[in-house]
Design goal:
The complex is a heterodimer.
Chain A: E1 6-12, H1 22-33, H2 38-57, E2 62-68, E3 72-79, H3 87-90, H4 100-104, H5 112-119, E4 122-128, E5 132-140
Antiparallel strand pairs in A: 1-2, 2-3, 3-5, 4-5
Helix pairs in contact in A: 1-2, 2-5
Chain B: H1 3-9, E1 13-16, E2 26-29, H2 33-37, E3 44-48, H3 53-62, E4 66-69, H4 77-85, E5 89-92, H5 97-106
Parallel strand pairs in B: 2-3, 3-4, 4-5
Antiparallel strand pairs in B: 1-5
The chains are: A alpha+beta, B alpha/beta.
């Protein structure tokens, strides 16, 4: 029943804004090659990119583990950063703890987590203060239900 | 509106472009990339005053095919090359953001309809 399944691993370097987004870019290219619906690709690419940027900005870098099968993509972004103190607050549009330096890079507008929620079909965030954060994003390749 | 018409209206210099005939249906003017990513439309032109590789990454994720740097900002070669590899057109105009958006809006790029 399970057709081909693809497991991908990427390292997300800390504080390297020039390279931030490389993992998402690579995943997007693979999804294009697989002939996935462009609307679904955009949902996966944007939510992964936001999570990747967060790992660079807030998480001190980390890892991305991506699994692609016939009907969905599961993206896990894992960092060992400080964790999210108040997740409910962080989910609100416009809430940010980012520094001016990050804002100068065009991020830190308090839209990262809200954007992930907007585009992911499923979003799960496990975070522990002082230990890190694991963001899991699922995007289905076909309309559900 | 075709990309070459946009370049003319903004008196913009084209730094890289594989197809100036691409059709632009709407535009988004912002220096905040997450705000750009909250904006879901097709055939979008991005106008920004932010010069960073993340502008091109954002365009890539959003399937944005053309970026205009406003206020006379000229991106470095690394950014232009990155855009070129991804097939994203890059333009630069001396117009400030408000004027650039206003000129395009007045010329009919209102983002309404198809």
């Amino acid at each position: 029943m399970a057709k081909s399944r693809m497991d991908l691993h990427y390292e997300i370097p800390a504080d390297d804004f020039a390279r931030a987004g490389e993992a998402s870019s690579s995943v997007k290219k693979i999804l294009v090659q697989l002939g996935i619906d462009p609307v679904r690709i955009k949902k996966a690419a944007i939510s992964m990119y936001e999570a990747e940027i967060n790992a660079v900005i807030h998480g001190g870098g980390g890892n991305a583990e991506v699994t692609i099968d016939a009907d969905k993509i599961v993206i896990r972004i894992i960092d060992s950063g400080p964790g999210i103190e108040d997740l409910e607050l962080a989910m609100q549009e416009g809430y940010t703890t980012a520094t001016d330096e990050i804002r100068e890079m065009g991020f830190g507008a308090g839209m990262g987590l809200p954007n992930m929620k907007r585009y992911a079909d499923e979003l799960d965030i496990q975070t522990e203060k002082g230990k890190g954060t694991v963001v899991t994003i699922v995007v289905y390749f076909h309309q559900q239900g | 509106m075709k990309l070459h018409e946009i370049a003319k209206i903004l008196d913009a210099e084209i730094l890289t472009c594989s197809d100036s005939d691409i059709e632009i249906m709407s535009a988004c003017g912002s220096d905040l990339m997450s705000d750009v990513m909250a904006f879901v439309k097709e055939n979008v032109l991005l106008l920004t005053g932010l010069v960073s590789p993340q502008v091109i990454r954002t365009a890539e994720m959003m399937d944005i095919r053309a970026v205009v740097f406003v206020r006379g900002k000229v991106p470095g070669n690394d950014i232009v090359r990155m855009a070129e590899e991804k097939g994203i057109a890059v333009l630069t105009t001396c117009e400030p953001m408000f004027i650039a958006c206003g000129k395009l809006y007045s010329a009919g790029l209102t983002g309404k309809g198809v």
